[in-house]
Amino acid sequence: LYSEKGYTCTVGVSTNKLLSKLVGNLHKPNSQTTLLPPYASEAEQPDNVTLFVDDHEVGKIPGIGFKLAHKIRAHVLQRPADFDDGLVYGGTKESVLVRDVRTFPGISAETLEQVLGGPGVPHGIGAGIWGLLNGCDDTAISQAREVPRQISIEDSYIRLDTMDEVLKELRMLSLSLLKRMHADLLEDEEEGEHDEDDAETPDSDRARKRWLAYPKVVRLSTRPRPPQNPDGSRNRSFARISRSGPMPNFVFNLKETFDTLSKRLVSEVLVPLFRKLHPEKNGWNLSLVNVAATNMVDAASAKGGAGRDIAKMFKRQDVVLKQWKVEDEDQAPVIETDVVDEQRPKDIVDMEINKPEKERVGSEDFPTTSQQTPGEGGGWESEDEDVLDEDMFRCECGAVMPVFAIVAHGRWHEQN
DNA sequence: GTGGGGGAG
DNA sequence: CGTTCTCCCCCAC
Fold first, then answer.
1. Stated in angstroms, how far is A154 CA from B8 C1'?
2. The whole model's pTM is what?
């Protein structure tokens, strides 16, 4: 990576995702660390997995976030939930280590299920957490998706309490969202991807762009500012509320300007959703507003797929749809680390040293297209001669339909 | 499908 | 180290 791209990287090597990630926190920013055997206890000898995991604060274990860590600490410190959520964010905690939890009297997958379980909590969370505390993790490592499940834009506010300002912000957010959709969901059409029998298609109609996926739903979320305490202090609340509705087809129109589209999205969809969210004409005070494009219908990887044939059935804007199956892959397995722990005993981990020529610390996130070209707009429009009714598509067979009927329509063709 | 909770980076 | 902006999965209904 460094010689070819100029990036340093840190790697953790172990027997599962949890352990690899934890051990990868060591020796940043340019080394590889391996958790050495023994992995299991033989006789009286403790295993390196336990030795290694035991020293971590519970909240540092991936999968144990703020809430779960809080419950676990409260259980181990028997009774009093420490004063860690007092003034500011995470606040001070009494540092409960994995060891303290793992060796706590009566602790088990079952007791953890009791302590952590409840309405809304994933079934079997006790067993899952117990596994993590013991260095066990059987979660799969899978390929990253080609398109995200959702795209959202949000902004936070010191104070947002007039409809005027809300409208202005909604327009901003919508504009950004539309640009993101174009940047991340629109792909350049490759010339080589056309078949010969596509020759009758005029060059001008060979779309330069095609959608990789269509979000079916648009969601508006807000975070109302928590009410004042009697003593004037402020409760930290991250609670969001949201309303969602169908994504209008016009947002996929490649010939309208972002400005036109975003204003339409605001007035026709977002404002109604906002009124649903906040029926009161006034009184709300929002600290955050989020607009999201979700429920992605994947149209990607049409190259070489069964969707190729269907693609040619649609004239307008070269919309290419994937076969009638919605992919449901797991999330990206990319292991990145954010915490630099103290050095571990040398007999537990083994380090290969790559001295960095230049010290380089920081995010190594893979940039998305939109991040590479922030705020870029224009040039995406495609010329298109025959326009049906605004939001409709027409199949070769003559049928006219909205965007999301295309998949079902294609299926019908396949069966007939 | 919708709305909310919890978590990661 | 805390905050902000995203994005993900799961659950109840």
1. 18
2. 0.71
